[in-house]
Design goal:
Keywords: DNA-binding, Transcription, Transcription regulation. Helix content is 65%, strand content 3%.
Length: 839
């Protein structure tokens, strides 16, 4: 067991060993005595060797003694350094003491803390009169960091230092082994740990039988705390104390009585199973006989291959406790319980739940599929909930509904309301009603059951009842589930349903707060966070806060499940459309076209579908959405065309008809909004705006009616749409005063355009740049704004609608741009603009 401890110590200023080295190598000549005490492999020999080199470099005759023979004639040496003094016979100590008393020169003695013979104790006491013993203990983080950094010749991640310290216990000889292996192979500490353990394990086979038995028992899980004392220590207290002292002195056991982790791995790696298994079973029996828990040892026992019913039950119980809050840990524990002999069928539903909540949908689905193949599968309701949740996250809510339908409301018990959610989401009102009735009859009073019932009843109210009642029930369901803190499998989170209903009824503040509360309370666990972030982003988009929306997109970034990926794409498309990002819109639409091929329509996907309809209309590819729209309208028809869910899609239909210049397609949606207005104030606002659009498109611009419709849209969270209506009407207003009034309305409703002006006076753009001031391009801020829209292929009318100016004003801006650039043709203008603006 060798060490590079001295080199490390020379960089660790302030330690006793470093001070001793500095004194001997740089101090004035003096008669010095010192003792070094440390466990095996702590660096005593290496430090003595460094000291011997230093003495010899200074011209001092030096004896480095490693045995009794080296101590025979010391009179001619100015420095005597004795290694492994604990192994010397008793007469040698008297000889060394006489030398110290009768001769000048330095004396340094190194020894282990055990065994300490009487003669060694007298020698140490005599030398300690000049200086206390220098204790070489385990290395600390600064020493390991310095040594590893120098050995590997580069910066070292903190995680590497932490792992090395954990594996080695700071024992220098083991630190050196690991770092040497890392330097030789170029691998990380985690990668070399197994090979180093195997090497160390073979070296440990030469230990005395009693010491090896102690270490192996401790490696298995016996400890010195009194709960499970290693069998070898129960034979004779005196022999047991000697074995523990020997293990610590050898650098194999820490002072708290635990085996160094790397030594533990080494022993288990090289010891045959037929010797390990009896010890493991004895450990379990000892702990159970003493009434102690197996929790502290169960995982390690299972990982090393022990199959034992008590170990399996302990792991299963621990996993059950972690399931609601720590699904990843629970998943690992269930797998270990199965390896230890737990019934894989009995735990299948819980294993599937932990996998699903940890984000491993494929594994969760596979477990459920296998379980449901059994006759009378156990924990059926949980298994169905997990399977339905997996299908829903994959964007296939109809399959989730099929699963609940197959199980039947009587077997679902408290999960029947979740079945109702899936049924309503796919348009099966009759089956949803049966599930709701069964839930009311069979449900339990737990908070989770209450949350499920409120969620289903709230969704029912949104389809067949009162929207206001629906919203508060869904918000209460969300609050209840968040307060419970459990991550449970559901077809849809109550926070998501509450946010969707809030968005569909113009309650943006409620939608935002319910999503934020759910995020703070970790509703649904880590796997559900992206969906909640995306809904927050959707609210930010509607409130004309694009940077907040993009921040939410970044929060939700990663490998999303299909239904969340659809929302992300629609949100990106919506942002691009509202910020006039033509390139972003095209990119987003390309991804949307691909995603739509894999995504069936359900009630909870109407929000992104409506936004994609508008993107398709803007790009004149709305026909690609016709099959999905047909499915959506069929779904809504089966549900009785509920205003909460139908009105927003009708509004998107109105907008799409306007974008494509097809007023004949607008009329059915306008009628749908009028019908929905009878039961929904939100739909009434949309219906009013729809009528205003129809009149504007026909050339009948009633300024008061347009203003009323536009401000109404803003009041229900559609300020961007309201500003667009006012700007569109302004472009068709016959009177300049009407045009100015409507443009002012548009500016008031659309914050990002609030400072945009129709002329080039001394006003500013939204970024605060004076629009009348030109820069190195020779164009004003407003002219550059118009120029970018020209490069995007916009017509005069489209430019006017985008920045709330009239088409004629847009034409004037473009003419002025041509004059300033000194070009005559449109092609020349486009070429110059691309060069100037870097487009």
């Amino acid at each position: 067991m060798t060490s590079t401890r001295p080199a490390v110590l020379r960089e660790a200023r302030g330690t006793a060993a470093a001070a001793l080295y500095e004194e001997i190598t740089t101090g004035p000549p003096a008669r010095r005595a010192a003792t070094l005490v440390g466990v095996g492999g702590s660096g005593k020999s290496a430090l003595l060797a460094d000291l011997a080199d230093a003495y010899r470099s200074a011209g001092v005759e030096t004896r480095l003694a490693r045995s009794e023979l080296d101590l025979k004639d010391l009179s001619t040496f100015g420095a005597v350094l004795i290694d492994d003094a604990h192994s010397l016979p008793e007469p040698a100590f008297e000889h060394v003491l006489r030398h110290w008393d009768q001769h000048d020169g330095d004396l340094v003695v190194a020894y282990r803390p055990w065994p300490v013979a009487p003669g060694l104790r007298r020698l140490v006491s005599a030398l300690a009169e000049q200086r206390p013993p220098v204790v070489l203990g385990p290395l600390g983080p600064p020493e390991v960091l310095a040594y590893v950094g120098r050995s590997l010749r580069g910066p070292v991640p903190p995680a590497e230092v932490d792992r090395i310290l954990h594996e080695t216990g700071g024992m220098p000889w083991l630190v050196n082994r690991m770092v040497s292996a890392m330097r030789t192979t170029g691998l990380t500490s985690a990668d070399v740990a197994a090979s180093v353990a195997l090497q160390v394990g073979h070296e440990l086979e030469h230990l005395d039988a009693g010491l090896r038995d102690l270490l192996l028992a401790s490696a298995v899980g016996f400890d010195l705390s009194g709960e499970a004392v290693p069998p070898v220590l129960t034979r004779s207290p005196a022999e047991g104390d000697a074995l523990v002292s020997e293990a610590v002195a050898a650098g194999l056991m820490l002072h708290d009585g635990t085996v160094v982790p790397l030594v533990r791995s080494a022993l288990l790696a090289v010891t045959p199973a037929y010797r390990v298994r009896p010890l493991q079973r004895a450990l379990v029996d000892t702990l159970l006989a003493g009434g102690h828990s197996l929790n502290d040892v169960a995982r390690e026992l299972a990982r090393t291959g022990l199959r034992h019913p008590h170990v399996a039950r302990a792991l299963e119980s621990t996993a059950d406790g972690a399931l609601a809050q720590e699904p990843q840990l629970a998943s690992e524990l269930y797998e270990e319980a199965t390896a230890a002999g737990a019934d894989a069928v009995a735990t299948a539903a819980r294993r599937a739940q932990s996998a699903a909540q940890a984000g491993d949908l494929d594994r969760a689905g596979a477990i459920v599929e296998e379980l449901l193949g059994h006759d009378n599968p156990p924990d059926l309701a949980r298994a169905v909930d997990v399977g339905a949740s997996v299908w829903a996250q994959r964007g296939m809510l109809a399959r989730a509904a099929d699963l609940y339908r197959w199980a039947g409301e009587e077997r679902l018990g408290a999960s029947a309301p979740l079945g109702a959610v899936a049924m309503l989401g796919t348009g099966d009102v009759e089956e949803a009603e049966r599930m709701l009735a069964a839930g009311a009859r069979l449900g339990s009073p737990t908070s989770l059951a209450v949350a499920s019932a409120l969620m289903a009843q709230g969704l029912w109210e949104s389809v067949r009842g009162q929207p206001t009642r629906s919203l508060w029930m869904l918000v209460r369901a969300s609050d209840t589930l968040t307060a419970n803190g459990a991550a449970v499998p559901v077809p849809e989170l109550p926070a998501v349903l509450a946010a969707l209903v809030a968005l569909n009824t113009g309650e943006l503040g409620v939608a935002e707060s319910v999503a934020e509360d759910a995020l703070r309370g970790h509703q649904g666990g880590p796997a559900s966070a992206p969906r909640l972030h995306l809904l927050r982003g959707w609210v930010a988009m509607l409130r004309d806060r694009p940077e907040e929306a993009r921040a939410a997109l970044r929060e939700a970034d990663g490998d999303l499940v299909p239904r969340d990926e659809m929302i992300r794409i629609a949100l990106e498309v919506g942002l691009a459309r509202r910020t006039d990002d033509a390139a972003g819109l095209v990119r987003g639409w390309a991804r949307a076209r691909e995603a739509l091929l894999h995504f069936p329509v359900d009630l909870f996907s109407l929000l992104p579908l409506g936004e994609l309809l508008l993107a398709g209309a803007r790009l004149h590819e709305e026909q690609r959405l016709e099959p999905h729209l047909a499915d959506a309208w069929q779904l809504l028809l089966r549900l009785g065309e509920p205003a909460v869910w139908a009105a927003p899609l009708h509004w998107c239909g109105v907008q799409a008809a306007i974008l494509t210049g097809q007023p004949d397609r607008l009329a059915p949606h306008a009628r749908g909004l009028v019908t929905a207005a009878a039961t929904s104030s939100y739909a009434a606002v949309l219906a009013t705006a729809g009528r205003a659009w129809v009149r504007v498109l026909s050339g009948d611009v009633d300024v008061t009616a347009v203003e009323r419709a536009a401000t109404g849209l803003a009041a229900v969270g559609l300020a961007w749409d309201g500003a667009r209506l006012a700007g569109h009407a302004a472009a068709r207003a016959p009177e300049r005063s009407d045009m100015t009034r409507l443009l002012a309305c548009a500016r008031d409703l659309h914050p990002s355009a609030a400072d945009a002006r129709q002329d080039d006076g001394a006003r500013t753009t939204p970024t605060g740049i004076p629009v009348g001031v030109v820069d190195e391009t020779g164009l004003s801020a407003r002219e550059k704004e118009v120029a970018r829209l020209v490069l995007a292929g916009k017509t005069y009318r489209e430019i006017g609608e985008t920045i709330f100016i009239s088409p004629r004003t847009a034409e004037h801006h473009i003419a002025r741009i041509r004059r300033r650039l000194g070009v005559d043709t449109r092609a020349e203008m486009l070429t110059r603009l691309r060069a100037l603006l870097g487009e």
